[in-house]
Amino acid sequence: MIEMKNNFTPRYYQLKNIIIDMIENEEIGVDECIPSEPKLMQTYNLSRTTVRKAIDELVNEGYLYKKQGKGTFVKGRGFEQGLIKLSGCSEDIRRYGLEPKPYVLRAEIEKPSKKVAKMLGISQDEEVFYMERVIYGDDIPINKNKSYIPYQFFKGIEKIDFSQESLYKVLEKDYGAVIKRAIRTVEAILASEEIALQLKIKEGAPVMLFKGQVYAQMQGKEAIIEYFEAIYRSDQFQFYIEQHR
Questions:
Q1: Quick one: 63 and 102 in the same domain?
Q2: How far apart are CA 88 and CA 32, in angstroms?
Q3: Which residues face 186 on adjacent strands?
């Protein structure tokens, strides 16, 4: 057993590091319960306030999660997606053995704003298919996304039920788009009240906002076939970059 040190390091911080060591050394596995508050108080001769401060910080930092009336458990790493390979959220969710469940909030034909028209390289007189969805992995909301598709390439797309179909599969298989690349930007933002409700997180929680354009071969030439904005829960999705020299 790791013991507390008699130095100037705050005792709650020492307890945090003890629990982190247990997790990293796999003494406590993912989804396993850590020792109870009374047990930690007794083992390390700490007050309830000190123990709770350590646990609350580990929850906020993504090491632990709480279940009402059951205890505090070790949290897994969540979903991962590379920033090099172009893939849809549904594909990444399936890689983790979960079933993607898209919930369509809006799907309609409309005229684009000046910003969207510029991103798609079209005029504001042309039509776009606009779709707004929340994507779940089993029962966990992963992201809220908005897609703008130039209607000239995808006539009739509004008739497809995207609560059952993958957007990229439809674009490729039904319309012959050969998706080649995407340009994406990412920034950290705080969840608004609306996003918090849709993703089942606290208002003001950190989330990741992706914006980008998807390019494909259409009718023998490269064209922008989607402009998207997607907000991901940072506690459920991690992104990685592989670099070479």
A1: no
A2: 31
A3: 210
Strand intervals (E) in 39-87: 64-67, 71-74, 79-82
pTM, 2 dp: 0.66
Kindly state the DSSP code that residue 69 receives in the 8-state scheme: T
Any idea what the CATH number is for the domain that residue 25 is in? 1.10.10.10
Task: Write the pLDDT tens digit of every residue in 19-59.
Answer: 988 887 788 988 899 999 999 999 999 999 999 999 988 88
Give the Cα separation of 220 and 222 in Å (integer).
Answer: 7
Q: Which residues contact 190 (CB under 8 A, 6 or more apart)?
A: 204, 205, 206, 207
Evaluate whether 97 touches 119 at the Cβ level (below 8 Å). Answer: no
Q: Give dist(CA 19, CA 83) in Å, integer.
A: 31
> What pLDDT digit, counting tens, does each position of 119-168 carry?
999 999 999 999 999 999 888 898 899 999 999 999 999 999 999 998 99
* 229 DSSP β-pair partners: 146, 211
What is each CA distance from 206 to 87, 186, 195, 212, in whole angstroms? Answer: 23, 13, 11, 20
To 5 degrees, how large is the angle CA 87–CA 134–CA 191? Answer: 100
Do residues 134 and 58 both lie within one domain? no
33 lies in the same domain as 87: no
